[in-house]
Inverse folding.
């Protein structure tokens, strides 16, 4: 199984770089993941989405889709694409240290 190192900690990831064990993720890792994903810095609106993704994963076992994010996270779909231009659900999931949401290609 592949691994990656963030914030000095080696973690197991899948072939696309998504965490396979979300419990290994820490908030300091998010900054490195964001830079690697082309997002840059993480202001409060990013953190709102990231924390929402982790909570949704913990509750349902998968990250939410863009549609669900736009309806329930408090961040509109339009803003999600501004925050995470390369695909909000997929990019936010990677930064949040959860597996890729179902339905993301």
């Amino acid at each position: 199984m592949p691994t990656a190192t963030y914030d000095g900690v080696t973690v197991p990831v899948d072939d696309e770089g998504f965490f396979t064990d979300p419990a290994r993720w820490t908030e300091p890792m998010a900054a490195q993941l964001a830079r690697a994903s082309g997002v840059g810095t993480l202001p409060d609106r990013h953190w709102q989405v990231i924390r929402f993704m982790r909570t949704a994963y913990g509750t349902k076992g998968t990250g939410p889709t863009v549609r669900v994010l736009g309806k329930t996270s408090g961040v509109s779909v339009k803003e999600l694409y501004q925050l995470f231009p390369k695909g909000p659900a997929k990019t936010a999931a990677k930064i949040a240290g959860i597996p890729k949401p179902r339905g993301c290609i």
About this structure: The chain has one domain: 3-96. The CA atoms of residues 19 and 42 lie 19 Å apart.
